[in-house]
Specification:
single chain, about 525 residues, alpha/beta, eight-stranded mixed β-sheet, seven-stranded antiparallel β-sheet
């Protein structure tokens, strides 16, 4: 395998600075041992005007087979001859990518103490590789390298045999890249995309390959139009690893779009997942613990000599949501900001909900939800009813269209006010379910929380908390704009002075605005009776 990297310069900024950036002196030829052979670094030319560094990788296919000991990729018995007679010594692949990371480790990270300003600046670069396997041809090469800032991407097909042109082209191309890029960026592109073009890895793909991909793809992969193909091929089509990488890339993309840190998006839960504690939901999530909500009062009275149970506010909220969905006749439901999946779990217990989709931006929250729901152990019929999807609620998503109902439980208060119109449009205009249920804290009730300091909101991530008048004003405006009628439900102890701890709005397409607290209370009471929670 052979690769050259060339640059040009001036007497003031000599091209031989390439040696400093690669940490390999132009006056010496050096050899390095890698896991798959010996890598040689040499400089065919080195002057102030032009400098070329070459990487030559000598592969021993016989040693690879022996190292494999007949197992895995290196020793498949049905391809014994192919293990000895193949293109590995000649065509750039994952083995060359490994050599790049081994030999040019510091350059790949953009580290150069001797010339830091050169490492941080774009250089005029020309990269040439005589033979690259390209499963997808020259057109795929352009799709992969074209969006990355290269001024010229040339992939000349290599003929199967020049003496027999009628045989056509092989799957190999001669690759030439030209453009002004940071050297570190150019090396990262090659490190990721060479095995992607080959469509195969010549070593076992372990879970840490996800971290390697994201490190090398930092700054370009999240926004690449072919990120799904790149991720799938780089991770050897391992479904679990690919999904993990795609989820993490989506977080990066959303964080960059909103100019915030990734951690600020993936903050639904801590490293230790809370148990069935009352929770609130960040924008697109619903798992961050808040103050205790166990002080909600009973939604009904006891029967006979029994003593009425006292459900927590979180339980009362779920009961109110379920009652509203049943009253609306919803069969397919979106839990937007599903967090750890408590509401999804409750919905699945009722057979009338035939399809339940939990949506959350937080990878950690979805992981906890999947464990809570035991997705890996569900029967086929039950598994068809439920799915968990990563997504941000302030962006339109065609996957969310066509459902009977959507729930935004303790979500809106975690959205910055300037972003609320985007959330409103994504849910009420783009997804447009027939029914939308929204719950949010009532800030007037906060004076009743003994543990809540005066003037504080219930959760540190809350961007605001609405009074009852403010919530109804927002809901009425949303309803008028999108053709929904709005009804209101008090959830929890409806204090005569400050109202309930949680306020709920039920949006219905074409309905007349009003209230239906009495019906909701009856339905919640019935829910707890069936669950055996009242005496």
């Amino acid at each position: 395998m052979f690769l050259t990297i060339s640059t040009t310069g001036t007497p003031e900024r000599p091209a031989t600075d390439l040696g400093f950036l690669l940490h390999k002196h132009p006056d010496r030829a050096q050899a390095f041992s890698t896991a798959h052979g010996t890598a040689h670094v040499l400089y065919p030319e080195a002057s102030a005007e032009r400098c070329t560094a070459a990487l030559l990788l000598e592969i021993d296919p016989v040693a690879l087979v022996r190292r494999g000991k007949g197992k895995g990729r290196g020793g498949a018995p049905d391809a014994a001859l192919a293990q000895y007679v193949n293109d590995r010594p000649y065509a750039a692949s994952s083995l060359l990518a490994v050599a790049l990371a081994t030999v040019f480790k510091s350059a790949l990270r953009g580290v150069c103490a001797a010339r830091p300003e050169r490492a941080a600046s774009p250089l005029p670069l020309r990269v040439e590789i005589p033979a690259v396997p390209a499963r997808g041809g020259a057109e795929l090469v352009g799709r992969l390298f074209g969006p990355l800032g290269w001024a010229s991407v040339e992939a000349r097909p290599v003929a199967l045999d020049e003496r027999f042109p009628q045989w056509g082209d092989s799957r190999y191309v001669q690759l030439v890249l030209e453009g002004e890029l940071r050297l570190a960026d150019a090396l990262r592109h090659l490190y990721v995309l060479l095995p992607v073009l080959d469509g195969a890895k010549h070593y076992w793909v372990a879970p840490d390959e996800v971290d390697k991909l994201l490190r090398a793809g930092d700054g370009w992969l999240a926004d690449h139009p072919e990120r799904k193909l790149i991720t799938t091929r780089y991770l050897a089509r391992r479904r679990g690893l690919t999904q993990e990488a795609m989820n993490r890339l989506e977080l990066v993309r959303l964080a960059e779009t909103d100019d915030i840190e990734v951690e600020a998006l993936d903050n639904a839960i801590g490293t230790e997942a809370p148990t069935e504690a009352p929770t609130e939901a960040p924008a697109g999530t619903s798992g961050a613990s808040e103050i205790s909500e166990t002080s909600g009062t009973s939604v009904g009275t006891g029967h006979g000599d029994g003593i009425a149970a006292t459900p927590s506010l979180a339980e009362s909220r779920r009961a109110a949501i379920l009652a509203a969905l049943r009253e609306a006749g919803a069969g397919t439901v979106l839990d937007l900001g599903c967090g750890q999946g408590q509401l999804v779990q409750a919905l699945l217990k009722d057979a009338r909900f035939t399809r339940v989709v939990g949506v959350d931006v937080s990878v950690r929250a979805l992981t906890v939800a999947a464990r809570r729901l035991k997705l890996d152990r569900l029967g086929e019929r039950q598994a068809e009813r439920v799915s968990l999807v990563q997504g941000a609620l302030t962006y339109t998503d065609k996957r969310l269209a066509g459902y009977d109902a959507a729930v935004l439980s303790e979500v809106v208060e975690h959205v910055d006010p300037p972003r609320l119109p985007a959330l409103e449009y994504a849910v009420f205009a783009a997804a447009r379910p027939r029914t939308v249920v929204v719950t949010t804290p009532n800030v007037e009730y906060n004076v009743r929380w003994e543990t809540l300091p005066a003037g504080h909101v219930r959760h540190s991530d809350h961007r605001f908390e609405w009074t009852r008048a403010e919530f109804r004003s927002w809901a009425e405006k949303v309803g008028r704009r999108h053709g929904y009628g709005v009804s209101y439900v008090a959830v929890g102890d409806d204090d005569p002075e400050v109202g309930p701890p949680t306020q709920m709005a039920v949006f219905a397409v074409g309905a007349t605005s009003g209230t239906h607290e009495a019906q909701a209370t009856r339905d919640m009471h019935e829910t707890y009776e069936k669950a055996g929670r009242t005496g």
